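Below is a typical protein record.
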Amino acid sequence: MNDMNNPSDEGQLHDYLTSRADSLALHLARLRHRGGLFVAGEVSLFVAAVAAVSAYIACGLVMVWLVLAAVCLATYMAVRVCDTRNSAAIDKAEALRQVYVNELKALGGDYTCFGDGVAYIDSAHPYALDLDIFGRGSLFNRMCRTVTTGGDDQLADWLGSDFGADAQSTRTRLGIMSRTIDALAVLREWRACYISLGVRHKTDTSAVARTMLRASRYAMPAAYGRRLTLAVVVCVLAVFYALVSLAFASVVPESVPTMYGVTMLLVTYLVVRKPMSRLSSDVSGMLDALGGLVEVLRHVRTMPVSGSADGTYLPEIKARVVEAMATVESLKGIADAVDRRGNQFWMMLADLLFVNDFFIIRRFLRWQSDSLDSLMTLTDTLGRLDALVSMATFQANSYGTVRAEVTDCGGVVLDARGMRHPFIGRKAVGNDFSIADGNYYIITGANMAGKSTFLRTLGINYVLAMNGMRVFADSMRVSVFSLYTSMRTTDDLNHGISYFNAELLRLQQLLAFCKAHTSTLIILDEILKGTNSADKLNGSRMFLEYISQRDVTGVIATHDLELSRMEHDCPSRFHDYCFEIGLGDSVTYSYKITPGVARNQNATYLLGKMLHS
């Protein structure tokens, strides 16, 4: 049974997102109206307090006016606190509404509001460039909802993994990941609030981790942490307050506590100057990052989990967050205290009244003595949750998908029914296709018939399956293997590399990769495009004859119909498939793959119509 919290199709999802965005817009309007009232109240109360003080002076120091001024100021402070909280509520509501607005944009094909992963593009990667894993409009771009930089790194690492390097480890991880993604996918409201934290401020977890590690190694004076030192400081403060009391009672001159206080300030400055300078240079600089991190941790702490035996990563993640929470909040409090020292008046007043700098250093020493293990693993834990939330959001917003069956058999196995490319949407045409270990599939067809899209469909659905995500198909059965593609080779004129040389380099990398892996699927779109037809055909045959003797399986798209003759030479290993087109009054494309060799080509047909039109 479906409801608005778990939409079952794209139409319901659009209605749900629109409803939430509109509801939050109304809530924001109310909050802003309330904020206007708070501001008006603050101005009125402040003016009233000033008027009451003026009346107190003008009316001969009548106490009622002074009491009224005090009441106005107290009320002003209360309203100010409410206004601050209301402003924070506005910020949260704006960020949450933006989450739903962004999802509506994504539903319409606009992913510019999400991270595109351009920084992770690597032309030497076995498959990422060819399959559009990173970059604008990529799988990463469509999936990324991270709130930390560590989440970006983890998501990129998972999407670009070499799954076949340790097949057993991949199989073990898949079950836990799929259950975790399913569990997060139904937490729609919780995920939206989580993602909104990144809309407001993306936390640089790597910078926080580096700073925390550096801070943990500060050689701070151990004397600050000793009880004897604390006793001495308390005694010094007690003497100061005693002298102030005696001065008020006119027992001692006012100059005595004044000189004592100035001396105390000077000694405090000289003693704490060096360690406080070091703290100020680093800890206060991470205040924003720590603030964002604390907000993320607090929200993670609210994540509903079933228990330690639910078969997901969530109980472990939540336990680590709870364990590290107090330590992170303690460091955040220290950073806040250090930041307040930027106000010179406050710094002098706090040191005079409380020897504030001493207690900041003492708190920091206590923080250093706490376990750093939980802190050092915390950023990795958050990065993992961050990536899982992104995957769960992508899955929750995708329809017509199924869970792939991952087999334990060795070698390369892929059997899919109704498999579609995830980027095309409702217009995508489903295809049935099976790949058997050690076999090669030669795919022919005209330009724009669907060959390259089909190759990417195979690869990107495999990447989804190996990350525990649902695939875009009616059904899919797949084994764990390594993947290597060659579809987008480009020249590099800056380094004197021609297109043909670039192709040879890519094939050389492919051969080295295949030698290092036991089971590999290679996906190639035209072998040796950068040479003449005869040379290309002979070179392609030579390459396929060589690679077919290795523990490699292949899917190869080509315009060379002669290459399909390899099925006649070795029908047990080579198989012909094609994307045929229809030629009539216009060219028609079915985008359906069928056994056999393509006969119709569209280049001559379309050029002829253009020349004779």
Observations:
- The beta strands are 405-406, 414-419, 431-435, 440-445, 475-478, 482-486, 520-525, 552-558, 574-583, 587-595.
- The CA atoms of residues 122 and 511 lie 18 Å apart.
- Confidence is low (pLDDT under 50) at residues 1-7, 491-496.
